[in-house]
Each structure stands twice: as C-alpha cells, then as structure tokens.
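It is worth pausing here to work through a concrete case rather than discussing structure prediction in the abstract. The textbook approach is simple: state the sequence, then state the predicted structure, then interpret. We follow exactly that order.
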Amino acid sequence: MDRLKFVRGEENEGEKNREYSSRIRLWMGRHDDKEKLPPSGDKNDDYDIRLTPGGRKHAKEQSPLTEIEDVQQSVSFGSGRVRARETAALHMVGKQPEITGDENFEELEAKINESLKVGTKLGIDDRLDFYIDLNSEYGQKALKPFKEGRFFDFIINESDKLANELGDKQSTTYSRSAKNGAEIVAKYLKIAKPLDKLVNDKEKDYAPDLNRFFASHQAGTPESFLAKVIEETKGVEERDKFVKSLDNKGFDFSEGFYIDIITDFQGNTTLHITYKKEKDGEKNFEFDENVPINIIDSILGVEKEI
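Step two, the predicted structure:
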C-alpha cells in the first residue's frame, strides 16, 4: 500500500507574497453519489451506505488541495454515515498521488492515517447528520414535500413552524441545522488568533493555512447555514433566490461552499464566505461576501425560539 506522507513542501512564491498572516478555510458541502439501500435493508443500514465507484472518483476530482498545498494541517469530518466521511476525506486528499479514487472506505482511512502517530484525520461530527423519524407526525408531513422534490423549500419555509406546533424537539429543521453550522464556524473563529500566533512564531513549524472539510447530506447543515447567512446579510428575498437556484432540493453531489477566516498582518480577523452556482454554463447564483462575525452569534441564538 502506498503511504500518504504529511510533509510540508518548500515555501513557494505564493506563500511568500500572501495577502494574509494566516487563514482557516472550511469547506462545507454534500456527500457524493451513494449506493442504493437494498429494498430489504433496515433503515439503520443507511449509516453504512458507501459512495458508488463514480461517486468516489467525482469526490476525488473535486479536491482543491494540490501536492504543494499539502494536507499536513488538514482534517476531514462527516456525519456518522460513511458516505459523508468518504466524501470529506476525498475532498481533503484527492489530489495526493497516492490516492486513486478506487479505495474503499477502510483502505482510504488506512492510507490517510498510516503516517499519523496518534488520532485520525477522518472525524465524525454529529452536527452534520440529519434526523427525521418517518413514523412521527413531523416525519409524515416532511415526506410529502420530499416526494414532490421540494424538500429544501420545506426545510427553509415550513420546518421550524411545524416542529414548534408539534412540540418536536429532535427533528432536523432550518434553524437547528443553521445553528449546527454556526457552532462549527464559531469554534474556528475562536482559534484564529491562537493559530496566527503559532504561524508567526519562528520556533514553531506552522504553515499559514489550516483546512477543514465537512460533508453532510442534501438540504442539511451546509445549505441551511448558508441560507441563514444570506437571509441575515441580504434579506429573505435573496435567500429565496438561493433556494430556487438549488431547485428547492439542496446541493448536488459534492457541491458546497468555502468559509475563510482570515487574519491580516495587523491581527484583524475577517469572515468571508464564497459560493457560486452555475447552470448550463452560466452563473445562476453567487454569494461572495465578507460577513459580519456577530452574525454567527445571531444564528446561534435563533434556535432558542423553537
């Protein structure tokens, strides 16, 4: 088995001339194409459903990290469902020459972790999961828009109200999913300045870029968080344009967006979010904005109202 080496490459001109002191880049998106659950399969088997061979290849192709921008300071996270963890990991290491895209999950995990002395680079974050009990009243009402192909529209416009009316404290809703995303971002906002201090400590060996990859499920945490940010910064009308650009369903396979937490040379921190949706070769929707950091606190507080 080829061994994936986590060794930082030579400093290049881009690093010498970078426009920031340090940067934390988070990718949040949907898993890639998954295998089908057998008709006789138990619903709990959904957690072990893997990517299809084509899904693995496609997720690998979507990786932004080259051999030079290596993965030493990168970690991937998925929900407890294997397909999400596979996707996040392939986005992280897909450009590394040792990764073929033919590896099953266990082989991929072994290649990634073989060079580590402790820990893993394939984490699980339950905030990326979804929960809807189809036997519950909430689940039955959510099933109809799902079958109609407008599940994301339901999540955005109906789920909070329905959960409140039914006294449902567990099911996936718009504000709960958005809060999950905000919690993830808040964690990295807290470590931005300590990371910057390490980057600028000549005795330490920290590169200026830290990368994290988070894979979830259609109409889940990534879309809800981004929709809430758009709503808070641009208004409900612009948010609805975003929902419509996704055909009211949510992200496509391996589709997602970037959250950059940037610290400049004066020690100031900026939060920037970048997303672009193209359809038939043309831009269908775009959000490319500096976002006020206090919006994260606002999103964290919304779920209290449910």
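Step three, interpretation. DSSP finds eleven helices and seven strands in the chain. Residues 20 and 264 are 5 Å apart (CA to CA).
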